[in-house]
Each structure stands twice: as structure tokens, then as C-alpha cells.
Amino acid sequence: xxxxxxxxxxxxxxxxxxxxxxxxxxxxxxxxxxxxxxxxxxxxxxxxxxxxxxxxxxxxxxxxxxxxxxxxxxxxxxxxxxxxxxxxxxxxxxxxxxxxxxxxxxxxxxxxxxxxxxxxxxxxxxxxxxxxxxxxxxxxxxxxxxxxxxxxxxxxxxxxxxxxxxx
Length: 167
Ligand SMILES: [Fe+2]
Hints:
By secondary structure, this protein is mainly α. It has helices spanning 4-36, 40-67, 80-83, 86-91, 96-124, 128-149, 152-162. It starts with a helix and ends in a 5-residue tail after the last helix.
């Protein structure tokens, strides 16, 4: 018979696997954003966040191994494109800089939400280390989300430039 605690523990492992799959997808997305962002300031921020995201992934991997060495790492898991409603987003006007700003903003907030629940699940399952990883990772996502939110004008200006409509 599985106890309540064991069930929570299993749930927690599934949450960590999902977060791990999410971070793998985020790395791919960030790589794409870096390639298509020609503004130096934004590119630098994206590159920095890519490095941070590699750390996020590693911390989750470490927790997975600590929680259950037999737990397999999800190969693809949550497709962030699907989570973003990418099909729908791609139907919106495809001006690259605004598309990138939108995708980055939505992604960071998705990550923030995932880490909020991961932190709580870890606490419920009595795993303070995983709760700590969730908090640390979330802090970086919040920082990145704020950076994007400070740069709407820049994304918009780049959109005008790209469309040949800059004043
Ligand atoms: Fe992340």
C-alpha cells in the first residue's frame, strides 16, 4: 500500500520531470530568440538567461537523481510551443521583434507559474531542497520577465525599423 507521503513524493517527481522538460524546451526557444534578435542589449540579456536556464536544468536534474535514481529523464515532454499556443501565436502578425518579445514574456510567466507549484508540491512532500531549487530558478525567471517588461518600447521600435517604418 502506498502511503500519502509516498504518493506526494511520486507527484513531486512528476512535477520535477515536467519542469525539467520545460527547461529543455526553453533552452531551444532561447537559442532561436538569440539568433533572431539583432539588438545588442536584448541579445545580451537573452544569452545571459540562456546560461541561467542551463543552471536551472542542471539543478532539476540533480533533484531528480536525488529523489529517484531510477526516474528516467523525460526526452521531450511538455512541448512549450503547445503550451504557448504557438499555432495561435504564429497566426498573429509575424513581425519578428514583437513576436520574440511576446514569446519571451509568455514563456517566463509560464515558468514562474510552474515553479510556484513545484515549490508548493516540494514543501507538501517534505523536500526543502527541491523547494529551494524552485525558488532560485523562479527568481531568475522573474528577473527576466521584468527585463522584458522594461523593454516594450525597444521591441516596438525594432519592429518599426524592421518594417521600414521607423521615423
Ligand atoms: Fe528557467
